[in-house]
Design brief:
It is a single chain. By secondary structure, the protein is of the alpha+beta class. The chain folds into 2 domains: 77 residues, no CATH class; 105 residues, Bactericidal permeability-increasing protein, domain 2, CATH 3.15.20.10. It contains 4 helices and 10 strands, in the order ββββαβαααβββββ. The strands form 3 sheets. Strands 5, 6, 7, 8, 9 and 10 form a 6-stranded antiparallel beta sheet that branches. A two-stranded antiparallel sheet has the order 1-4. Strands 2-3 form a two-stranded antiparallel sheet. A hairpin with a 5-residue loop joins β8 and β9. The chain is elongated and about 75 Å long.
Length: 183
């Protein structure tokens, strides 16, 4: 897929060839790049509703998305550092945090730019719903003040738990998504 993850999309069984269609049963397991150890999930069987009004049907199981989440978590893809340049663009500084958290205001009288380190602390959980899917992410955010000599001073760390819903739709032959923060 990329430098962080690889996919095994081999056949689970021989193709079933029928007069009007071919049924290919592919397994789709995503692994961290170069590490083919099994993910901590068990694949549950599922069926696709029998319809014959389209030329092609693709089905992705919850297991496929869980293995993706596992592979990218293992590879560290959910660890992000937002540099001071980006924070400066959005005008995020110790002054902003000082107005919310009094301890930061006491520590940092002079406004300094900040740097944010975001990281997932557990494997994100992806669940398929009727018309959308949800992603539950547990993580932490550490906020650093960037001092004039370019060193950083940790200001605070907070734990984050987010639950989002993502719905996919097709508009004008384009796949579009909408994201909703549930909590």
């Amino acid at each position: 897929i990329d430098d962080l993850a690889e996919i095994d999309y081999s056949l689970n069984s021989l193709p079933a060839v029928f007069r009007p269609f071919i049924d290919l049963d592919l397994k789709g397991i995503v692994y961290p790049a170069g590490n083919y150890s099994g993910p901590p999930y068990v694949a549950a069987p599922f069926t696709i509703p029998d319809q014959s009004d389209s030329m092609l049907y693709l089905a992705f199981s919850e297991y496929f998305f869980q293995t993706c989440s596992f592979a990218y978590y293992t590879a560290g893809a959910f660890n992000i550092t937002i540099a001071e340049e980006t924070c400066s663009y959005f005008n995020i500084s110790t002054e902003i945090f000082g107005s919310i958290i009094p301890e930061v205001a006491k520590y940092s009288v002079t406004p300094y730019p900040v740097m944010l380190k975001l990281m997932a602390t557990e494997i994100p959980i992806i669940s398929l719903e009727q018309d959308s899917f949800t992603a539950e992410i547990q993580g932490s955010m550490e906020v650093f003040a960037v001092l004039p000599d370019s060193t950083t001073q940790s200001l605070f760390t907070m734990n984050i738990a987010a639950n989002t819903s993502i719905a996919l739709n097709i508009f004008d032959q384009k796949l579009m998504g909408s994201l909703c923060l549930n909590r």
